Amino acid sequence: MPRPNDEVAALLREQAELIAIVGGDAFKARVYEKAARSVAGYQADVSTLDIKGLRQIPNVGASIAEKILERFQEGRIAELEALRERVPAGVRRLMQIPTLGPKRAMMLYQDLDIASVEQLSTAIGDGRLRGVRGFGPKTEQNLLAGIELLRTAGQRLLASAALELAEELIASLRPLAARIAYAGSLRRMRETVGDIDILVAAEDSAPVMGAFAQHPVVGSVIARGETKTSIRTATGTQVDLRVVPEQAWGAAMVYFTGSKEHNVRIREIAVRKKLKLSEYGLFDVDSGELLAAQTEEEVYGRLGLPWIPPTLREDRGEVEAALRGELPELVAERDLRGDLHTHTDLTDGVATLAEMLDAAAARGYGYYAVTDHAPNLYMQRMSDQKMLAQREQLRALADSYPKMAVLHGTELNIDPEGEVDWPPEFLAGFDVCVASVHSHFTQDEAAMTRRLVRACENPYVNIIGHPTARMIGRRPPVEADLDEFFRAAAGTGTALEINAYPDRRDLSDEHVLRAKRFGVKFAIDSDSHAVGHLDVMRYGIGTAQRGWLEAADVINTWPLRELRAFLRKGR
DNA sequence: GCCGTTTTCGGCCCGACTGTTTTCAGTCG
Question: What CA–CA distance (Å, rounded) separates A373 from A111?
């Protein structure tokens, strides 16, 4: 996805929020939001479009097209600047606290002069919210819990944002480096990262260090030395650049990829063999002789280990498995034959059915399921007629994709009792049914467990979508007896989703590890709402690998015949 | 501010939950 689109989308989203905060027309705010989503999901680079081209984008009319043009011609949008004058940035940030929306954020600012999350936290502690209209004791508790959630996860960056930044920096520095790559938790594909580590091999470190320190994303240079430069971006992300000699590349990659715990384990193995492992290489303790450093394979090899994939390097048993020669053959993106959870503009997607199918076919998929929302997610205004009309349209388009089977599915809503939207006779018409929790997240554990188990027991439900409904940094996972849930999924032939969306990653890697022990099968899905979202699969693969999955565990790596047999669910 | 097989004005994503109220505003999906 072209970056200018993301930037414009962020500006439009900001304008939408600011309109809502200052109490502007709610419909107007909504249009800006919709336009932001359309721009983010639009194929063409908006910075290359003229007024006419911009107006082709859904939900972009004369006014918003002008503003986008203004952004690229003037470097700013005057109306947005004027709104920013009225609302401090911290007030907007207050809205990131779950349960705090635009109205009460503005009230806090106007009545109590609270303009940051920190100030709100202090104000609650001082009892300054007592007696303020709309803020009772329960609200105070909820706000404090929300602030805590922000504080713990909010400091970290989603892997998607980190990867984008890392790839941009690497692209610009590559001409100055013999070798360059990112390491750290990003290479291990954790959900979030605290900072970004970039490793460079170069004879002379000065040119690459200089270029790095002067890169446009740099807000401030924290430290600058011979082998390491640290910067902070304007948005607060720390990036460390380390330069090593090319002959030490492998040892440095091992060292800087971590995790710390993994490194401790392999260093112990080295010590037992009278070796010493550092970022400069693997050495014989007695003679000081360098034994291996050039590649990771060599380093692991001299320790008596096979190369261990970065996504496993968490000291969760990978060293022992490697010693036994029992490392899993991890599922990889190239193993995926299709995507089983995607949306179109029939509900909340921004691309048409044909656009999504084209993009899926271009990825070389052997099958692809369209699973728009079902009627009980009321805001989507789904109906039997609309769903059947889509099926007809889809069957008609299927001939255009001789190499890709086009499956018609839906994403059902699991209601508090575990029931879903349609009766069996209607569900029977779908090729695949995803079912997800979209509301009533706070049921107690027993009720939530029963709800999820019942959904698995439904003979038409094939995949439980984003099974814990968590949003990273926004909403905790639902409380349920996961072991019972996983047992039910395995027993009923219901796959559990690894939703690849970067702020979901749901199931998480820990849950995948646990579920696999029950014999659960998984579906790695993009949950795409736009053409560009099909690429988020890499994060789903990251989570699957971190959960030690092999291709056989993942139903959308299977040939179509086998997949279809699984989807029949013994019916 | 956008949109149109209800078309240039008058609608627009609907319903439920939470926590606050004492009949409802705010937030969420």
Answer: 41
**From the Cβ of A542, is strand B under 7 Å away?**
no
pLDDT in tens, A231-268: 888 777 889 999 988 889 999 999 999 888 888 889 88
In A119-273, at which residue ranges do the beta strands (DSSP E only) sit? 157-158, 179-182, 192-193, 195-201, 218-224, 228-233, 238-244
Per-residue pLDDT tens over the stretch A118-165 = 888 888 888 888 878 788 888 888 888 888 877 766 567 889 999 999
Cβ of residue A474 lies below 7 Å from strand B: yes
Chain A residues 92-111 within 7 Å (CB) of strand B? 95, 98-105, 107
**Closest nucleotide to A19's CA, by C1' atom?**
B1
Alpha helices in A195-334 (DSSP H): 206-213, 249-257, 260-272, 296-302, 318-324
pLDDT, one tens digit per residue, over A541-559 is: 999 999 999 999 999 999 9
Distance of alpha carbon A147 from alpha carbon A333, whole angstroms: 36
What is the C-alpha separation between A292 and A127, in angstroms, rounded? 62
The predicted structure's pLDDT at residue A1: 42
- What's the pTM value of the predicted model, to 2 decimals? 0.84
Scanning residues 401 through 460 of protein chain A, those with a beta carbon under 7 Å from any atom of strand B turn out to be 438-440, 442
How many Å from the CA of A290 to C1' of B24? 75
Q: Which domains does chain A have, with CATH numbers?
A: 4-154 (1.10.150.110), 157-244 (3.30.460.10), 249-324 (3.30.210.10), 333-567 (3.20.20.140)
